[in-house]
Design a protein that fits this description.
alpha/beta, Rossmann fold, N-(1-d-carboxylethyl)-l-norvaline Dehydrogenase, domain 2, six-stranded parallel β-sheet, 17 helices, 13% strand
Length: 431
């Protein structure tokens, strides 16, 4: 049986990972982007995004992958995904202009029986409105929830937990080619109406925010009363109502872009329809409070004791294994450290002077520490876990290591003569 040809339009983070995963599953694929320079770069395996395993996935499926800037190449596709990234502003509102522009370019090129799938995240009501605008047969327009996680995008694209599919009529069978494509991933398929699928993605992120906010709130309480959050987490993981996979790691609020967007969307929809969102707004406030934990700690432990301090910052990306700095806690910290000198290192992000008026880039983690009064680890890159703490202690001028994600081993830090400060633990005895 001939496999359907799968097209993906929009070769940004979501589209590149998705098209590579489809090719890995054995399907002939077309990766379309209206930018000719990007299509040429992708064809020579010059990827615009950092993602572990992605380059190898693209290279290993070169015979099934076609990258193009010519929309006419999509005419041979049975299924075409709109898979561009959706930018958000500082208030968490989505800019759907790139999505609509891509749809306008793609739809005239499609054959009459092709299925159009919206993969990028859109607000409830978007897909039904699009289907009405296009005037196509009801089963030719689908919404599918994307599962992109920065730093784990290849894993998620290759081995999704489930497919959430929005359709005009979820009781009807999915188009055969589309159903065959989803079946190749061997996971549950959950059909539902358009609006339910669009809201499902937001619902998942809301549950994640609830766990993040719970962990952050109680970790902060631990810091004040002498408890240790890391001792409590195993008890929660063994509770079936919460579970071993629950996200219970305390952090610096909600970073990235998707979670903030979904909170903003819920608040907007609730305001329009007269629903209550005080709980959601409290999560937003909690996130902003927790984001500034490092800055408060720095003022308490360093700025109050050292004149004109110098800080070493490891990590500029908002999380490990990605180059993205969208809503990065590290950049938020830099804005609060404007009066002071900062030496920074990140394995994927260049220390841009635009981030901070007195920012210096370092060649490596030890170079960042030279002469600094405190070390701050803002992104939990695995490479930072391998740092020689003896060299860190020798390079630093001070002794403070502020490590919110507990990247370093506290016992090893103490052995090296360093003071280790982390989230969810009473750090006052370490002064």
């Amino acid at each position: 049986m001939t496999k359907p040809v799968i097209g993906f339009a929009g070769m940004t983070h979501l589209g590149i990972n998705s098209v590579a995963a489809a090719a890995e599953r054995g399907f002939p694929t077309v990766g379309f982007d209206p930018d000719p320079a990007r299509a040429v770069a992708l064809a020579r395996r010059d990827l615009p995004v950092l993602e572990p395993g992605l380059l190898e996935l693209v290279a290993g499926n070169a015979d099934r992958l076609t990258f193009t800037a010519d929309s006419a190449d999509l005419a041979r596709c049975n299924i075409v995904y709109i898979a561009c990234d959706v930018p958000t502003d500082d208030a968490g509102s989505s800019d759907l202009t790139p999505v609509r522009a891509l749809i306008e370019v793609v739809t005239p090129a499609l054959r009459d029986d092709a299925v159009l799938v919206i993969l990028c995240q859109v607000p409830p009501g978007f897909t039904r409105g699009l289907a009405a605008e296009l005037g196509w047969a009801a089963d030719r327009v689908i919404y599918q929830v994307e599962t992109l996680i920065f730093g784990r995008a290849v894993e998620r694209a290759l081995r999704p937990e489930r497919f959430i599919v929005g359709a005009a009529d979820p009781a009807r069978p999915l188009p055969p080619d589309y159903a065959a494509f989803l079946a190749a991933f061997d996971c549950p398929v959950l059909p539902m109406r358009y609006e339910s699928a669009e809201l499902a993605k937001i619902s998942i992120n809301m549950c994640l925010v609830a766990m993040v906010s719970t962990a952050n709130t109680l970790a902060e309480l631990c810091e004040r009363i002498g408890a240790d959050w890391s001792e409590i987490v195993p008890a929660l993981k063994l509770d079936r109502r919460i579970g071993q996979y629950a996200y219970l790691q305390p952090g610096l609020g909600i970073a990235g872009g998707n979670l903030e967007r979904d909170l903003a969307t819920v608040c907007r929809l609730a305001d329009e329809h007269g629903s209550d969102t005080r709980m959601v707004r409290s999560w937003i406030a909690n996130s902003r409070h927790r984001r500034d934990w490092v800055l408060r700690t720095i003022h308490e432990r360093v700025v109050a004791r050292v004149a004109d301090p110098v800080f070493a910052v490891l990590g500029l990306a908002y999380k490990q294994d990605t180059h993205s700095t969208k809503n990065s806690p590290s950049l938020a910290l830099l804005s609060g450290l404007a009066p002071y000198r900062v030496r920074a290192y990140d394995p994927a992000v260049v220390a841009d002077p635009a981030f901070h008026p007195r920012l210096e880039g370092a060649a490596d983690p030890i170079d960042a520490c030279r002469g600094a009064d405190a070390l701050v680890i803002m992104t939990p890159w695995d490479v930072f876990r391998q740092i020689d703490l003896t060299k860190v202690a020798k390079a630093l001028h001070g002794r403070e290591v502020i490590d919110p994600y507990a990247v370093l081993d506290p016992t090893a830090c103490r052995a090296a003569g360093l003071i280790h400060v982390t989230l969810g633990r009473d750090n006052h005895n370490d002064c």
